[in-house]
Fold these 2 entries.
Entry 1:
Amino acid sequence: MAAPEVRPRGARLPRSARRTQLLGAAREVFVAQGYHAAAMDEIAERAGVSKPVLYQHFPSKRDLYLALLEQHTDELVDATRGALASTTDNKQRVAATMEAFYAFIDSESESFRLVFESDFTNDPEVRDLLERMQRGCAEAIAEVIEEDTGLPATEAQLLAVGLTGISHVTARWWIQAGRPVPREAAAALVAHLSWRGIGGFPKAEGKAGQP
Amino acid sequence: MAAPEVRPRGARLPRSARRTQLLGAAREVFVAQGYHAAAMDEIAERAGVSKPVLYQHFPSKRDLYLALLEQHTDELVDATRGALASTTDNKQRVAATMEAFYAFIDSESESFRLVFESDFTNDPEVRDLLERMQRGCAEAIAEVIEEDTGLPATEAQLLAVGLTGISHVTARWWIQAGRPVPREAAAALVAHLSWRGIGGFPKAEGKAGQP
DNA sequence: CCGGACGGTTACCGGCGGGTAGGATCCCGA
DNA sequence: TCGGGATCCTACCCGCCGGTAACCGTCCGG
């Protein structure tokens, strides 16, 4: 691939600039290799720097990973909140949220892999961050559901989680299958599924369905 | 916890019995710790046996994990196929499939964690197994969708994946939240969501929704 | 009584990779 | 010109764990 392999060595950088650059290199490596297979040496090399420099900015591999992860989970929660607030028509809300979700997953950096394909979920803090993220997204959605349907909180939460599940799983499938349809089409189809259900699709002939 | 810690040492077993027992011990450890944190020593100890015995049955940690994983992915695909074949009414098909999915996840052994929370997805063969599993489930569902709606294969596949996504994500949430509602209720609610969509739930007052 | 197959054990190796000690360089203000 | 405080490097340590070599007891057929 023509990815920005190893950056030129030798250039000195002010502390904060170096830090963000290291985060970028770490993201690339963690996304490509996962937490366990990623080596600190490799992250350092990718950034054009030696390992101790990395440790001057982050106390441990784990902390580096957590910093990165938090950044991206926050991003998704914000995107979800934004999409929900963009309209008051619920059907459009669903569409907007799906679109936001697909946009998040479709980013060049593939950073969604950190969030949805983490291989460090054994760590309690990682679990906690991911759980928080899901709560953040689901509660925002559940609030709307609860308000508009009068369902009990638990049920609303379950439905909300279901909606995030649709987007999450279909979006990853869509990427992994090589984006077989345009992003907007996929998001729209999935939004339709979410809004009308699978029973809401037209029947071909006299097959079974609703009476 | 009162989990069956370490089994009594000293008993000799015929080869095949030992093998299945080792698989059981491995499942317990992998489920509790994940692939990376699990040590071969611990699996052996859990089975009341020494490490070389483990290696007389499985050539490597990776192979052991793969054997275990394949077993459980097959299980889920079969359950899905069974549920789809249990009726010809599509609405009931959805309900049955959800119920099957929830049953799979609600097993005592928590073996679903191997499948849905694997920390070894970096491995190509693991990826392949999981991908196969999703294809297996999704294609079975997509076949029905395609046949009944006349949608193109890709679209049907996307919808099918969406339905698996609902079950997968809600079921895990339901477990993680401490099973806040009975399993049948959760499965039924989620089946309703899948069939009618979020737009199919009753409105509380004069709020936005379908016109 | 004997040999060998089978199931099991202890004790060890080796490398990978996270983390660190100690020193070299360079910029900048006095 | 001369500290001194950044920034960065080479070189190393060491613990963990997957995997193995070599050996032991026991049962069974001849």
Entry 2:
Amino acid sequence: MKRRSASTLRDVARVAGVSIPTASQALNGRSGVSSETRTRVHDAAHKLRYTPHAAARRLITGRTDSIAVVPGSNMTGIFSDRFYRPILTGVGGVFESAGYRMLIAPAPRVTSAAPQFVRMVRAREVDGILAVGIVGSRWIVEVTESDIPVVLIDNQFPELAVPAVVNDDAWGAVLATLHLAGLGHRRIGFVGAINDELWARETRTGYAQALAQAGLLYDPAIEILVANDVESARQGGHTLLSLAERPSAIFAASGKMAIGIMKAARDRGLAVPQELSVVGTGDSEFALMTDPPLTAVNIHTEELGQRAAQLLLGLIHGNPAPASIVVRPDLIVRGTSGSSR
Amino acid sequence: MKRRSASTLRDVARVAGVSIPTASQALNGRSGVSSETRTRVHDAAHKLRYTPHAAARRLITGRTDSIAVVPGSNMTGIFSDRFYRPILTGVGGVFESAGYRMLIAPAPRVTSAAPQFVRMVRAREVDGILAVGIVGSRWIVEVTESDIPVVLIDNQFPELAVPAVVNDDAWGAVLATLHLAGLGHRRIGFVGAINDELWARETRTGYAQALAQAGLLYDPAIEILVANDVESARQGGHTLLSLAERPSAIFAASGKMAIGIMKAARDRGLAVPQELSVVGTGDSEFALMTDPPLTAVNIHTEELGQRAAQLLLGLIHGNPAPASIVVRPDLIVRGTSGSSR
DNA sequence: TTTTCTTTCCAAAACGTTTTTGAGAAAGCC
DNA sequence: GGCTTTCTCAAAAACGTTTTGGAAAGAAAA
């Protein structure tokens, strides 16, 4: 009596005293069935706790109501990445209200998950794909061959015409740099990431551009590239702060690097923001942990995710693919940036 | 020529010049097919880029090779929760090597996702369920009715006999408190979470127990319960540190609360660890951001996830359900705890 | 009364696999 | 050459649903 095998549409039809197709019609709300039998079928279904077998339904309808989320190779993990996490929250919210499920390959990186994902796509397990971060173009080609809609987040393949949603990293750097310039700083240092990912390059570009815009000289001596972690940035900070003409403000391209800079300042007994202004990039959880709280470029990560999800839903429903979407960050001024002198 | 509809087993059979069942047998490596036809079938399948239709296969085999991950109501979000994130990383690793996929309802909390999940389970979309954090017992009952294996993480229902994997929160508190006692501290304060979740209660229990074990007096005046965030803990810290007989050490039940305490100490000009020792709880990403790095109870989150995943895989393959698994944390001594005086 | 139109339902086919059963052919044995 | 045995393959059934093409029954129109 424990193991009551799951009830099927046939059972419902039998209990309601109708044929299988009639039961199906009734439950799916299609016309051509009297309201009396309709309620009888619904009652039977409810009594038997009937739920349609997903695989059977998929087989005939061709829809899966699921989308696959693919972690790019630059994610530290689909669950552990600080930057991409809130993006996925945004994605999830949109798909939830649309009644979709997210299928997540447990593989930490797309490089290892690639064959698995291609198989998933070919097996028609999903209606669409959301690739988050860096994925190889070879992989994209293989996937798009299957006529399944794909949307990229924080990545672009202009030559392949794959729709994408990206953050305007250069704009963020411009905001940060102009903010510091507006406070009267003339020597604004930059600590960037030494990798060659898009955001690292773009951030650097924005910094240089903003300097020009503010009429400040670009000085390679106060620009330094380090690995994207606290300790490397701390060392980089010491390099910058030990200069004869040390910068009065530093813009760090990530939250971790900003924290490293603040540690370096504290090591040297420099008060923030009185003797050194620091601007970072990142979420508020990070920013509020420092003392004082970090002035930072705020990337609308959740919005990135939402926009991408909406775009993908549109493609699934047959809408034409729009051009890429660019989302601009803004700057949240907290306690680490102050006027020069 | 762009829209080449996906090839099916029938196509493979036709190209190879055999019947459909023979093609199936050959591809699935079953005996009773000559090696010559077998290679012919494989060649055809490869040429046509054949991949079995997942839904069709599921319909007949009954297996889905997927498991559902259910976010508990105390998660801040399946992607955004600091504590549960690494657990899911552990889970993912195990399922990846076992060839399983993870289905994640995008809903942020199980309370909102409950009906959706029950439907998923009833629709036989998954072979097993992993519930992470707090889920309602009513929900569990509803799900277990479907004869689908369920494993809980960081949660327990002794009366329902649902297998679970939990962290030994009390033990962590004992380690932290005894560490401080071992450094010579006689007045060890406690900042706990005011919610009534299991970990909050257990941590408090462990603290009290360790005091007794160390021969120290339990003083309600230096125990305080606050909301689990930085700012609340900061205020709580001020309360504790303004006492006439202020504690020389404080154990905080979470990383956020530990940071709040450190901010309070800095507000009052108290040097850590010279004038106040602080021990927290949490991952190293958090702990390394403070200055000096935080001495903290280290919960083996990833191991929790791995053990739970392995347990669930066992249940799916018919193993008997073992008793609950308890994983003990350890203490990582960093820079915020020093000897008394 | 006969014809035409609705309404309500059901039989059958389809989706793409896997599994079971059985038939034909080649080979071994007397 | 007749008999069994082994090997290879194909025909048919099954999984649980949705969709299509009518059929039966009753009501409206002639």
